[in-house]
Structures are given as C-alpha cells and as structure tokens.
Amino acid sequence: MYVVVVEIKIPKMYHKPISSIVKILLFTVLMASLSEGYNIPLAWGRRDMPDCLGVLGNRDLYDDVSRICSDCQNVFRDKNVESKCRSDCFSTSYFETCIMALDLAEKISDYKLHASILKEGKK
C-alpha cells in the first residue's frame, strides 16, 4: 500500500478557513483516485452472511466459493442463479451445478470443503 501526502499551499490573500465539507470532498476525490484499479474490500460481518458462521477469518475461502456463484450467474444470465447458489452457505445443488457448469469438476471436493468450513465456522 502506498501512502501519499499532499500539501496544498494557499497564498496568504486566500487564507480563509476551509469548510469541513470541502476537506471531505478533497479527501474523497484523492482516495478515489488512489484506489482506482485496486480491489479494496468493504467491511462486513456475520450478519451479512447469516448462513455462513465461518465467514469472519476465512475471507479467502469465501471469495473463492463466492466467485463460483458470480461466474455461474454470468454464464446462465439468470438473476436468481447467484442467490440460489449462495443459499444455505453454498450447500445447495445449485452450487454443485455451477461448479460443473464452469468445468471445474476436478476441484469440486476443494470447493465443497471450503463451503463446509464456512458453514461450520472452523478452519
């Protein structure tokens, strides 16, 4: 991660207090420009995936199995596929079907293990 320090020098004739809104706006624009192209995850917790007790601390596993459902929705172009694939913490037949549809049958045992870890809350 890179840290960028920006110093803005304002001529003395313009020395007026900058409002908080302007400061927040400048900060937001700066952060948006710095993070462009980087995947910065948002904070989330157990309540965001109530079926999966093991999501916290296992973000890498969650991202792995979640990608299966996202890719599956892109393949089938059905708005319900992703939610059905994720339901019951990736332990429905939709999840298995998506793995097969994405031609990942050789990794099915790994994905099922990841899903069971997320469901049980252990690693």
TrEMBL record:
<keyword id="KW-0527">Neuropeptide</keyword>
<dbReference type="GO" id="GO:0007218">
    <property type="term" value="P:neuropeptide signaling pathway"/>
</dbReference>
<dbReference type="InterPro" id="IPR018251">
    <property type="entry name" value="Crust_neurhormone_CS"/>
</dbReference>
<keyword id="KW-1133">Transmembrane helix</keyword>
<keyword id="KW-1015">Disulfide bond</keyword>
<feature type="disulfide bond">
    <location>
        <begin position="72"/>
        <end position="98"/>
    </location>
</feature>
<dbReference type="GO" id="GO:0007623">
    <property type="term" value="P:circadian rhythm"/>
</dbReference>
<comment type="similarity">
    <text>Belongs to the arthropod CHH/MIH/GIH/VIH hormone family.</text>
</comment>
<dbReference type="InterPro" id="IPR001166">
    <property type="entry name" value="Hyperglycemic"/>
</dbReference>
<keyword id="KW-0472">Membrane</keyword>
<dbReference type="Pfam" id="PF01147">
    <property type="entry name" value="Crust_neurohorm"/>
</dbReference>
<keyword id="KW-0372">Hormone</keyword>
<feature type="disulfide bond">
    <location>
        <begin position="69"/>
        <end position="85"/>
    </location>
</feature>
<dbReference type="GO" id="GO:0005184">
    <property type="term" value="F:neuropeptide hormone activity"/>
</dbReference>
<feature type="disulfide bond">
    <location>
        <begin position="52"/>
        <end position="89"/>
    </location>
</feature>
<keyword id="KW-0964">Secreted</keyword>
<feature type="transmembrane region" description="Helical">
    <location>
        <begin position="20"/>
        <end position="40"/>
    </location>
</feature>
<keyword id="KW-0812">Transmembrane</keyword>
<dbReference type="InterPro" id="IPR035957">
    <property type="entry name" value="Crust_neurohorm_sf"/>
</dbReference>
<dbReference type="InterPro" id="IPR031098">
    <property type="entry name" value="Crust_neurohorm"/>
</dbReference>
<dbReference type="GO" id="GO:0005576">
    <property type="term" value="C:extracellular region"/>
</dbReference>
<protein>
    <submittedName>
        <fullName>Vitellogenesis-inhibiting hormone</fullName>
    </submittedName>
</protein>
